[in-house]
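Reading group handout, session on sequence-to-structure problems. Before we discuss, look at one worked example. The prompt was deliberately terse, the way you'd type it at a terminal:

> structure histidine kinase

The input record follows.
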Amino acid sequence: MKSMMKILTRYVLSAAGVALILLIINFAVFVTWSVQSGKIAQKDYSVSQLADGLTKSDGVYTLSKSAQETIGKRFQWAMLLSDDGSVIWSENLPGDIPLKYSVSDVAGFTRWYLNDYPVYVWRHPDGLFVLGNAKGSMWKSDIELPQKVMENTLVWIPAILILNGVAAVLLALLFGLRLFHSLKPLAKGIEDMAEKRPVELSTRGLLGNLAAGINKTSAQLTKQEAALSKRDNARTTWIAGVSHDIRTPLSIIMGYASQLEDDPELTQSKREQAGIIRRQSERIKTLVSDLNLASKLEYDMQPIRRNAIALATLLRQIAVDFLNSGLSDTYFIDIIISKNAQNAMVSGDEELLRRAVSNLIANSIRHNPNGCAIKVTLDKGMGNCSLSVSDSGVGFTQEMLDELNHPKSSAQLENHGLGLTIVRQIIKAHGGTTEFRNLPEGGCTVVLCLPVSVNDYSV
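And the output record:
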């Protein structure tokens, strides 16, 4: 809703700004036009100057050359009336112009027209100088205003401009409110779609077509969301069911394989084969468990039982478990915990975090059959703990790094199985990040960054 108010505010301010700019432009154009009109009138012609250009010498009237050229360019004809109303001189006088006038005739055409010719007059020493334009070339009107109105012009003009500005702002506000009320349900509908809620907007009004489009899109998204949810639930249920159904026969196979492995009546080769069956069955059991866990983490169906966890203690326990499981002497596990991380606490699910670190160590062991040195490091920074598992083995190819750091989907890590997928999902569920990279001296490292517990105030 704040964005809608911002749109309304900007709309009104923009409209007011446009109105103000138009007023300024119109005022500037009016002033320019007035000045230019005055300059043209003063520059191109002046009735008084033309009248002064008509002189009398030895009883003969002579018009100066400049006045004659101006009359030819700007006007059509000119004449001089004596005091008794007779034409005593003329220049290009039309045939329909009388040669004798009475006082009333002169009073009639002095300010307006003479036989539809626009005329201008000026007092001459010998009478009245009359200057005529062509018919239809000029528009003349009489405007009279009280002197008080003219004196108040400097007050009225700014007041009118201010009134125009206020009216423009009010109109912009009115139209903006109408637009706001039209867009408000659309904005609410878009917010509901973002929250995956169904939308049903009214399709009446100016924005009816847009509302109909939003309704259609919402219906399609709701339908797709329902289909995806149904598919994901079916997949998770199927994986959980298969995991449960496999667990019982797999346990029987492992039990019999273990008995055969320990049976002294069997040959050494047969006992070794039974041992292979047992180990591979255990691996299948682990893979099925990983698949089930990855599916639940993918769709947020795995509950996170959060408790305060001391990471240093957890890492030491994991290392002891690997060393006590009969790990070959070709593998060396070293735990390095910085001084400021000895008492570091994180809030999370201890079993899931144990699973994540164990998967990383197991991954290093599995992909380096000839042995390697494994180093687990824990350090604490500002508000987070950095936990890394490194090995001196073969490392990752560039293609693996691209897939591990930028998977196309949250479960697409085929080259390294489900183990690393689960690691990334567990850390993400705890609000952390995972980074995979190779080491310059050889081998690889996986860095897990976890936020420290709010109750951890250790330095």
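Points for discussion. First: The chain has twelve helices and 14 strands. Second: The CA atoms of residues 12 and 172 lie 5 Å apart.
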